[in-house]
Amino acid sequence: MSPIDRRLIVSVNWPLLILALAIFAVGVLNLYSASGFRMGEEVSLQSFFNKQIIWGGCGLFAMLLVVLVDYKHLGNVAWPLFFVTILLLILVLLTGRTVSGARRWIEIGSFNFQPSELAKFAVLILGAKLLAKRSEKLGWIELFAVVGLGLVPALLVVVEPDLGTGLNILLLLCGLILYRGISGPVFKSLLVAVPVLLPCGWFVLKPYQKQRILTLLDPEKDPLGTGYHIIQSRIAIGSGQMWGKGFLEGTQSQLRYLPEKHTDFALAVFAEEWGFVGCIALLVLFCFFLLQIYSTARTSKDRFGSFLAAGVFFYFFWQILINMGMVLGIMPVVGIPLPFISYGGSATIVNFCLVGIVVNVSMRRFVFKKS
Amino acid sequence: MRFESETQHAPRSGLILLQVMVFGLFCLFTLRFWYLQVHKGEQFAQKALDNQMRQVLIDSARGRVWDSTGRPVAVSEPSFALGLVREDCEDVEATLAKVAQWTGADPAALMETFKRGKKRVKPFEPLILVTDLSYEALAHIEANDIFWPGLEIVVRQKRHYPEGSLMAHILGYVAEANEEELEKNQALSLGDSVGKQGLELTMENWLRGAKGKKQVEVDALGRQHNEQVIVEPAAGNNIALSIDLDLQRLAAGLLDGQAGAIVVLEPDSGKLLALVSQPAYDNNLFVLGVPQDKWSELRDNPMHPIQNRTTQGLYPPGSVFKLLVAAAGLSEGFITYKDGVVCSGSYQLGNRKFHCWKKGGHGYVDLRQALVQSCDVYFYKLGERMGMDRINAYAKASGFGVPTGVDLPHEKAGLIPSREWKKKRFGEAWTRGETLNASIGQGYVLVSPLQVARYVGALLNGGKLLKPSLLRDEPPEIQGVLPLADEHRRFLVETMVDTVQGGTARRLLRPDARVGGKTGTAQVVKLINADQRRKAADMPYKYRDHAWLASFGEKDGKRYVVIVLVEHGGHGGEVAAPMAKAVYDYLFGPPPGKTAVQADPVIHQLEAGD
């Protein structure tokens, strides 16, 4: 353990921490509301609210652990961590516990562990390490090498099946590649190739996933399946109007059948109760949160740190984009939660750990190696 | 632009990208929020208020059950229940009071139902308060429920059994699913009926359809409009039974007032034409939940009407078992047809005397005579020579001591005793005397009427043990083959014919058909001693032996097996044979000439011990 001296404390990106905690607090408050039936009954799902607070505590503790170790050591464990993750992902497919049709968990005693969570870190750290090495823009060979490396864990996660996490891992990596920059010819080729190749991806999707994309184009076509989510979600959000119905006042009648109102559709509950004003406030919080990560990426003293921060930026960015897009009915329904707002134990801990990595980079930006 | 050192700086273009992305995110979602919440907010708010969409499950019709000729024995009828949608109800207490007034239900009980239902039923789903509304109550509610938002008439399928107790043991019944069943099957919702007994239980998945879904829009007053069926309900499958309702009714009538069982099956297909257990219960009682006092009455009835005696009634087979012991002796090479025994009326084993039912003895009997006259001494000797282990193995291979696999729940396997079994059960060693008892079908041996039917069927059909089937269109299922040579098998069938010609089952004799049979008497007194049960000692009825008759009849290429068991009926020939005869009169038509055989004293003597 390196001693934590005063200079480190001063350099911490405090605004980032405060913003993360503020968004988390909004999420907890919103869960409290989403959990309650107020039909003359006591709050029946309060456990979600209580549990989320406990998860938050665990997350902060985990973040503290992440902050203690100098992030430069992360580069040294990048490869071992990556291979261990791959092994665990294969293990989970072979021996994992099946919960509602998906093999995602490895049981260690009474503790359930999702290797797909670890995969986010492994890809983030290895991607940052590889891409930070050189400064010229990416050529073909490097591009294929990096994307190939990322595809292995991503596909293993998609097979579980956990499309949301797999997508997240790949998008994070793509973000890092864009951050590094792509060389002119390669960029031009991709500009042509991607629109051509994208329809091919259509044939890889499972029928229910295709259905979701089709539903997005015409929600009324499947009004009780996936379209139902979108229609009800829009009604809930829209009915919040300018000022919202007030805390605990959302009728939620439209969302009552949705188990996801705690998780993926938590934002709809928020939007109904806080209205346009509340939503913009939350959006501003998220934007400032992202900008704080950006500032750490900008001021980091080495490229590895910068890339780490950028990776975390993309991780959160894609989740916010996809989840909000889905709830607002402009993106297909993919199981991706909204950071700090959706209920979820492992997601909360991972989110705080990732914030911890950025804090770690920020606080060590003035500390020079003792030579 | 300065050249960036490799280790010092973040990529500039990347940094610009991040800023652009945040800016884009903000603009995109601000616009979208504005569009939904401000631009179209009014509309959505109105939608949320006026039209709440709800998904409602549509019940599917449970499959119907017919007898072999297409007469209904289990149908579903619509019944009307009164539900309360909590979300739409303004004043629960007043509404419940009103419901009590309309239906005559107890207000406290209604409140109790409401409180229990609150835990399980979502606020926007009807919580069923009263089931099976009378038409008066229904008319009343229909006229007034507009003033009581939240109340809703729910049409549900209610199972009805037109034949009631006649088919109760076969069909069983459906009743409301309990917690455990709801946990186990996600397709069930609170208040659904599931099969609890009989075919309703074993064929549950076949009979139960899949629910449909509809989407209804509900306005602020809870009125439903714009129904849209999303998933059509799929009706359950129907069942055609192999049971002939007329024969079933006749057989039940024969046993009326007595406890017993009658099984009629086709030996070549395994199809059951009648399966009667008396006394029976009315399964319609259970459909809407049987009241506690009625249930206690059924449960504690000393005649056990709930028990299906054809599959769950276990009795010592008595002389009927001699067929199997003879088969074992022939197959294992211990005897031939010619081997004879001199029966002096008893058999000495060590210092114990084992009596033949005929006090004076049968004199010299060969195997055929021993079976026709049902001579105990012959089988004592044979059993002694073979030993219990052999009898046990052979009986098991012939389908005794194992369930028949009929599609009815909770079938009992019966018991073929063995050394190990006795050691485990009583901690005592097996004695040779017990082997002798087992050889004449007494002692520990227990069989069900259906097992006997399957065995006799196998003797007739070429040795195939067929699964007894209740379904008209089910192909025969061969479960095994008797370990018995064809020649021996035919010999045993012949002795059964001889037994009708001049033995203990003479009442079955008819000139126009080939009928064979074997009577049996199962001793009860010993059982009582064995079970240490003396509470029934004051009931002479309890002391009487059970009467068995295992028989078959052939005419015009049609063959049937008829098994009759009468509890405490005394001797097989006296009580059970007339019943079997009546069944054959139905199957083959009345016999030409006289319709009733006069009982003559000779037969009486024959039957005195059997």
Question: Topology, pairings included?
Answer:
The complex is a heterodimer of chains A (371) and B (610).
Chain A: H1 6-11, H2 14-35, H3 46-68, H4 72-95, E1 97-99, E2 102-108, E3 111-113, H5 115-132, H6 140-159, H7 163-180, H8 184-201, H9 207-217, H10 226-239, H11 266-299, H12 303-327, H13 345-363
Helix pairs in contact in A: 2-3, 2-11, 3-13, 4-5, 4-6, 5-6, 5-7, 5-12, 6-7, 7-12, 10-11, 11-12, 11-13, 12-13
Chain B: H1 12-39, H2 41-50, E1 52-58, E2 65-66, E3 72-85, H3 92-103, H4 107-120, E4 126-130, H5 135-144, E5 151-160, H6 168-171, E6 174-176, H7 179-184, E7 193-195, H8 198-202, H9 204-207, E8 212-218, E9 224-231, E10 239-240, H10 245-254, E11 260-265, E12 272-278, H11 284-287, H12 292-300, H13 321-331, E13 340-343, E14 346-349, E15 352-355, E16 363-366, H14 367-372, H15 376-386, H16 388-397, H17 419-426, H18 432-439, H19 449-460, E17 464-466, E18 478-481, H20 486-502, E19 514-522, H21 525-531, H22 540-543, E20 546-555, E21 558-566, H23 572-588, H24 601-607
Parallel strand pairs in B: 2-10
Antiparallel strand pairs in B: 1-8, 2-3, 3-4, 3-5, 6-7, 8-9, 11-12, 11-21, 13-16, 14-15, 17-18, 19-20, 20-21
